[in-house]
Records
---
Amino acid sequence: MLGLIVWAVTSSPNWPEVKQAFFDPEEFKRAFPEVARAFVRNVQYFLIAEVFILAWALVLAVMRSLQGPVFFPLRALAIVYTDLFRGIPTVLIVYLLGFGIPSLGLPGVPTGAAFWGVVGLILSYSAYVAEVYRAGIESVHPSQAAAARSLGLSRAKTFRFVIIPQAVRRVIPPLLNDFIGLQKDTALVAFVVAIPEAFKQGQIFQAADFNFTPLLAVALMFLLVTVPLTRFTDWLLERQRRRRQAGAIV
Amino acid sequence: MSKDGCALRVVDLHKSFDKLEVLRGIDLEVDEHEVVCLIGASGSGKSTLLRCMNLLEPIDRGQIVIEGEDVTVRGLDVNRIRQRVGIVFQAFNLFPHMTVLRNVTLGPTEALGISKGEARELSLELLERFGLADKRDDYPDRLSGGQQQRVAIVRALAMKPDVMLLDEVTSALDPELVAEVLNVIRELAAGGMTMVIATHEMGFARDIAHRICFLDEGVILEEGTPEQIFSQPRQERTQRFLQSIIEAGRM
């Protein structure tokens, strides 16, 4: 199948030109170091954003999972938040915050476009991740909460010690899915910042040299991070499964 | 310890789920060191009664008094009450992400505020007593059903409750694992633990109970000593229930 596609592409009439424009080894060699250097910024954005997303999304998910009329305002707030930030395209949020807030010139508020771009990523992604957490929380059987409460644990401690640890373990694969999405979407910050990250750096080369090969280098950089991340999670889940169950077999 | 020696008193307890009235006026008194067995068909309200006594289900009407304290008044700290009433569930409900030892120490450390070291010591002692010491670092999934249920009993005991409620604790077990759990309960009874036990194990109930209550459609239809209930049941429904148990070969 793959061979067929490769054959179809390489035998197309314009292949020599395309090959020149997309797969130029000289161009690749020239662009790669700069792209790689710029990619460090993507990793920074990703790491910083991820920490805040994981924390903030958990707060949102817990807010939404609280039961009883007393907590209605918190629940409503979480629902409105999720609807809003899941409904708006991430690129738009990054744009609005990255250009909008610095231009307000509010005293005491950071004016860095990168800062607000990352904030945009955090706001947007935490809405998705909150839903993932919530699915995890709801998948923990009510009997677990009953067992914890029957020991006299408070509602908060039941969440902290019994429900959330189990919920998080169960949603690691979908969480990773969002991690990868986020890692790729750090390229969106390119739209609002002056200092280039990898995608922007690739574009700069592409525009200067009329050659698309640098963008291929960018794609490669992203793969270098996302693929190991996926394998790592697979390994993590497998280890966890073994640790909990293998003993029954031996 | 209450003045009148009554560990647990339930007065005119009513509980509905939506339109279905599951408990229709339960009156029950359990003395200290007494073992009361609840028998009755599925859906007769045994489990709901136990869950209400642990305040896991809000009640519609009536009163529950534990060691002289009315626990059904509004605004009461339910966590404090639950610490004094242990419950063991049919499906064990152990925490699968924690080791056996952590399952047992969680309540003492996080609900009672006992220090980690002290809770560990207390838990190891209990695990040792019930033959589970070598399982302390295992996760629940690695244990047999009987072992899991014993851990669940130890977990409840670690809270040093005044009363233990056991909700069909052997119903989910393979037949050959039932005995080990029943032996643990026998040991508790011998130690003077106040217990309310919902069970389908009639032979066991006859052995261990000071008093048997037959529940039918949300009321205690008949109660008495095991001899009375099993040898000369007065109510026709009780007779029919016991007859069906005998026919099923479970007696």
Note: Chain A touches chain B through 22 residues (CB under 8 Å).
---
Amino acid sequence: MLLLSIDSSAGASAALTRRGEILQQWRTEETNSHAEVLTPAVQRMLEAAGVSGTDLDGVAVGVGPGPFTGLRVGLALAHALAEAWSKPLHGICSLDSVALRATDAGVEGEFLVATDARRREVYWAHYVSDEAGSRLVKGPFVSPAAELPPLPVVGAGLQLYPEALHPAKVDQDPSGWTPDAVELGQLAAAALAGEIHGVLCQARPLYLRDSDAKVPEQMRQGAPR
Amino acid sequence: MTEPLVLGIETSCDETGIGIVRGTHLLANEVASSMDEHVRYGGVIPEIAARAHLEAFTPTLRRALETADVELEEVDAIAVTAGPGLAGALMVGLSAAKGLALAAGKPLYGVNHLVAHVAVALADQHGNSSPLPENTAALLVSGGHTEILRVGSLADDVELIGSTIDDAAGEAYDKTARLLGLGYPGGPAIDAAARTGDPQAFRFPRGLTMPKFEGTAQNPGKHRHNWSFSGLKTAVARAAEQFTSQGFAVPTADLAASFQEAVVDVLTAKAVRACQEQGLTSMLLGGGVAANSRLRELLAQRCGAAGIQLTVPPVRLCTDNGAMVAALGAHLVSAGAPPSSLDIPADSSLPVDRIVV
Ligand SMILES: [Zn+2]
């Protein structure tokens, strides 16, 4: 199970994984250069691993939620790669990657993943962790941090709203965690191997918000005053 | 060398266009428009356009390859609009183009949208390409841009002679149509309403025509070859208001016809004079407003009187499309232009003399 995975829901990242083992990985915390840096990074990774598109079993892509323009860059790239290689394309909620990291770090029971949604809000989802790993309970949603259920939190939302959110108990500080392609590749491989269920989705962006466009007064009336 | 087979991708505004050409021979020109989704807003909403590009990309690509009856592996290069245009919309096409280029191992050409409008005028479905005439001007008029260019060579010699300093002409149509309750897009709506109106009923301003802006041929002013359309909608609004405030019906057809006359008069007068003063003897028309009946009529008349040979491509090639991008890409491949790097940015204000990024 050789997968190329891509996420551009916060920073940008890409990974080549074989049955979940990392062959190559790349990431940047920059949020405004996805259109420039992501494709060359994928090219370098393929070259470094000596892998061509025909060797792959599929492409996995984070579908967000995340800032729209950057999110679309990763999705457009993933769609084009999968189409040109004639390989299956799998979508995964980007927050699931942070949930996997939490479980691997020992978080147990119910917890939330919260990331920056800008405009004084967070993107968040509710997970539960048990022997079988982490599982989505509900979400993702976009809300002000103060409206989230009172559960331990992991993810970059923590550092933005420390008064509203309290961190899950883990060894590393979870307040800077953002989605990463490595975990998306691991989740996709596990889902495709039938080990976990319900992870894969359509490779279409989870916007969670409408565009800001407002219908002008004149269009509502449909005639001059 | 046989003529290059090039796939072109256009996502600078609200049309997702994918075209395929072999040299100057158009093989496919598939366009998915998000126009319907913008109607209730009376103008293109960038976020809505960008969302629609991502949804439309793969189906449009498949249709184009099927129509042209070619496989992606056979293509010699991928061309894509790198700018100018709406940044978020450009990034969808650019990122997808990079993906295709990387996956299929093809060179990428990030090209200038405006120059692509010119390139398509020289291509057709039968491969009967006309070479670029010497001393050519291009008049590009759409909802996003309004320019006159001197085109010496599509590969390396394009110069901006004049442009709008505020609204694009098509934008002025949209805003005025909205004001008059004629709907969106404004171009066809005003064109239709104007048919029963009197173009002389109102005298609306011709922007940047005062001597202080224009100067003389020997001593040209700063805006001799530039246009301004933002004052027009205000003038139309004020005229309409005089009727409503007195309880009279607004003479929509007369206002539409007079507005259209003002736009088309100043557009064509300045374009033709610019050609005469720059020694340009042929003109290509491009952009969505090229569909406007009055613009075509008056431009043909004035070019004829000035001895300028006018070429107007079919309307579906004047509006934004992928074939124009492919046509410019094929030209660049033939001219031996070096391909673009995979790290090029989308440039929403790409200047016209940067033909390939
Ligand atoms: Zn255009």
Note: Chain B has twelve helices and ten strands.
---
Amino acid sequence: MVVVTPFWASIETDMPIELWRRLLPPRVTLAAGLELLIRPYHAYAIQKNSLETVRGAAAAMLERGADRVYLFNYMDSQTAMERAEDTKAVLNECGKLSTLAGKTRRHVATYTDTWGPDEASAALLPKSVGAGNWFALRIATGPKVSRAEVRLGCEGPAPAELRLNGVKCQ
Amino acid sequence: MHVWTADAAAGQPVVTVIDARAADAPLKVHWAEVEVLG
């Protein structure tokens, strides 16, 4: 088994699982490693995943080709989710797309907390958008989305317009 | 936190376009997420 995982500082919601699948022989089981912590960039306040954010990351990784979900630091003591009952739900729901189906999930833009020699460190956020400009970000959302909400934490005014897959949000 | 809803955001992955072309001041995004409603 190969477990693809960030180092420790945040769950990584955009790991290129499909590339790992292509690189590995079919006999190798491929697991997506999900960290307990979640943040969009390193200087952001440390916080823990919720049931909904784990569902989101698991759905995205399974849909991209992971055979398994590997939970790191989802313990029942010091390094635990905020609500103990959520740990049980994570264990029951987040191993298969079939058990995630129909449940609300959150897909959060996070960052890569480690990188190889000569590889640039990268984080999508924070991102400044000047008046008169725009930017786009891609968030893997697992199986096909039919209805969604977008949440942005911004400094300054709200964006004039926001679109999901070309659909103008209300 | 600002929240927007899209009722027909078909397909995936989701691309979120943040348009500040009509804004009169810069904005800085610190957090971005898509909640898929069950």
Note: Residues 17 and 32 of chain B are 11 Å apart (CA to CA).
